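Hi Q.,

Before the meeting this afternoon, I wanted you to have the cobalamin prediction in hand. No need to reply - just skim if you have a minute. The sequence and ligand are here:
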Amino acid sequence: MKKLSIGIVDLVAKAPTRTMWMRVMGANFVSIMPQVVATWCEEQGHNVTLVTYTGRENLIEDLPAGVDFVFISSFTEAALLSYALSNLFRSRGAVTALGGPHARCYPQDAQKYFDYVLGFTDKALIHEALRDCAQHRPVGLRLSADHHPVQLPGVSERWKFIEQTLRKAPIIKMVPLLSSLGCPYSCDFCIDSSVPYQPLDTDAMKEDLHFLLGKLRRPRVAWHDPNFGVRFDSCMDAIEEVAPPGRIDFIAESTLSLLSESRVKRLKRNGFKALLPGIESWFEMGRKSKTGKTTGIDKVKMVSDHVNMILRHIPYVQTNHIFGLDGDEGPEPFELTKRFLDLSPGAFPAYSMLSAFGQAAPQNLEFQRANRVLPFPFHFLSNIQMNIKPKNYSWLEFYDHLIDVTEYSFSSRLIFRRFLANGETIPRWLNVVRGFSSERYGRIKYYTEIRRRLDTDRQFRPFFEQETTEIPEYFVEGIRKDLGEFWDWLPHGAVCHDPNAYLLSVEKACSACNIPSAGAA
Ligand code: B12
Ligand code: SF4
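Predicted structure with the ligand bound:
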């Protein structure tokens, strides 16, 4: 097979940016798969250049001239940048492929702009694409493995790609690892709601940790498992076997139901410094937070006790909450969140709006059937802009509550209380920087502007109320400004997408084989 020049671009940022938060933390938000794909390509003898884009790099100069094949890894919020880049590299003769969350969620749209759109990706799939290495236009080829790979290249094999990324992180340097894929829970809104839990080999995990201990004085590991610690004892046994207590710092996303006090103490002994449990709702998902059928203020108190217990042992706890769920009504969900913050001042709250990311979850079919999904440009879809019409709120009510709870959460008073409640220096200051930079000057500013325009911008209400699909100029202008020089490469029509493409594809498939489509996913 011909030796190819391969470029791999990991889009951590969605556009050029110089914010403090991205400067300090951007390089720590890289994905594992671009490094994995780079390793698989090199194994085949190809020349590989991996660029991690944190918003400051020169994407055109950093890839070699005359590159044959470009893989782009993109979240939906960076989809428009990825489309522009694909167009640019195609114009220079390259074949392009998209992978990552956007490719899994919106394959029908991405096919218009890429030669290949990859879903679940294993080594065989990458080899297949490279063997073919052909233009597929105007509609790209959709490829997917049956499931996630059963094994990934270890840290030693990925080291040169990891090391180049670590050099971009000025203060805090994290290495991403995985000990499992998928999840045994099935939260309706989640991309993993129907992906079976799949633990990875613990021997490989031990090798990774052992290798890191030989390379870094005090490694920091971010577990990218959707839900870390489902097989708690085998994971912790593996860590304890190779890493002396306190030699590695760990961060993990885990459900509250897995975090009993004895386990949290074991995590502490082994250097876990940050945990990100999902609370999601005060009225639903009790199994996940181990609160059973308890709801409302009683659930707030139970969860708060649990979170405070964790905070006694672990210095940084980010609690994940979702607003706009169909079960929510009136001011209560927002007020309960404020009470939770009063009771757990050390927790950093991360708010997501209910979002239907294309075909991420079967539940999205219901939203599409009910015609509740709005065609907000991808650039704004990052859990911050709700793209589903709320069931029990008008948009005005929803934004009023949202602004109120976010202002409360990131008021100087609460940022200060959080500072005092956090025990260690790095978590303390991270919370302050994040509170001011990304939340106060980022989110609150955005929500307030949307709310203001719902009253004053003549294009807003008709779009939000689904009387028109015409994207308000405010959003288009925002994209143009953000993308800068890449705007000129954005293919015609790419700002718009069909929010019901998933439903259409299911109905088409069902009519082709004559199976009734109700409930099909
Ligand atoms: C770990 C994680 C993070 C980590 C690490 C992020 C990262 N860069 O990987 C952190 C905490 C930093 C994070 C941040 C965010 N996240 Co996040 N995150 C996850 C999580 C829990 C696991 C993803 C994971 O690594 N899985 C393991 C990998 C191996 O599986 P996979 O992602 O499915 O990948 C498979 C294929 O997609 C493919 N593939 C993946 N990447 C690539 C790349 C190439 C080149 C190729 C060819 C193939 C390929 O191969 C894999 C194997 O089959 C998922 C939820 C979930 N349960 O999956 C959300 C998720 C991916 N995150 C999400 C979001 C929205 C965000 C944020 C925008 C949130 C925010 N507002 O800040 C940021 C964006 C960060 C960024 N731009 O990099 C959404 C993405 C939806 C979308 N369509 O964009 C998800 C799906 C959660 C959700 N809301 O449903 N996240
Ligand atoms: S527990 Fe987390 S990863 Fe698992 S299905 Fe629910 S939201 Fe997704």
